Amino acid sequence: MDSIKQAVELARAAEAVYRPGALSGSALAPDGTQQRSAESPFKEVRLSADHLEANRIVAYGTSSPNGRYYDMLRTQVLQEMDKKSWQFLAVTSPTSGCGKTVTACNLALSISRLPERSVLLVDLDLHRPAVANYLGMEGNGGVLNVLEGRTPLSSAVLQARIGPNSLLVLPGSVSSNSSEWMASQTMGALLQTIKRDFRSRIVIFDLPPMLLGDDVISILPRLDATLLVAGVGSTSISDIKECQKHLQGSRVVRVVVNKVTESVGSYYGYY
User: Fold this and answer.
1) From CA 227, how far away is CA 206, in angstroms rounded?
2) What is the pLDDT of residues 161-208, one digit of tens each?
3) Quick check: pTM over 0.85?
C-alpha cells in the first residue's frame, strides 16, 4: 500500500495549490465499422488522431510529449505484472471525474505500440461506459450483449487501428443491473473465456468508480491487479483512504494522480 500512502501525501500537497478549472477535461471511417481483414477475425475500425487528441488520448504515437508519461506508466505496470505473471488489470477511481477512462485508453494504446505486446481493452463500467466515445467508435452493445447471450464474444470485440498499431476493444453499454452482473456466474464465465481466448494479451478493464456502488469490490477478487486513478480537485484525501480499506485484499500496482500542475512537483500526467 506504499503507493496509496504516497498518493495521500501528493493529494494533500495538491489540494493546497489546486485552482478549479486548471484542467478541463473519427472518428470512424465514413461507413463506420470496416470489413474483417484477412489477418484478423475481428471487425476493424479506423481511429482518428484528431478525435483522440480532442479527448486527451495522446499515447497512440510517439510525437506527443505528454504521451511519454503514459509510456513510463506502461513500463512500470508491465514490469510488475510480468513479475507476477498477471494478465488482468483493473482501472478504477474513487469517484467520477478522475480520468480513469482516459488513463485506461492511453495505457492500452501505449502497450499496443510495443512490438511484442498486444492488449484487449474491456469497458466494464456498466453505469457510464465511455471507452467507445473516447476512442471515437460505435459501442455496438458490446459486453452487455455478450453477457446476455445475444452476441458471441468474437463478434463483439473490435480491432481499433491507428497508423501501424492496433488494439482490441470490447465496448460497454449501460445496465440497470450492473452490480448483479459483476457478481454473477455469467461474468465469471466471461472472464474465464477472455483469459483463455486472449491469453497472450494484457487485458485492461475500465471499471466504474469504486465509491459509487459495490460493482468494483464485487469483481476485484476475479482480477489480478488494480490501477487506482485519483484526480486533483475530484478526489479528497478521505476518498483515497476509503478506497484503501476496500483494496486491502487487492494488488495495487500503481496509484495515478491526474491533473497535477507542475507547481505541485515534477510530475505532470501521473504519480
Assistant:
1) 10
2) 999 999 999 999 999 999 999 999 999 999 999 999 999 999 999 999
3) no
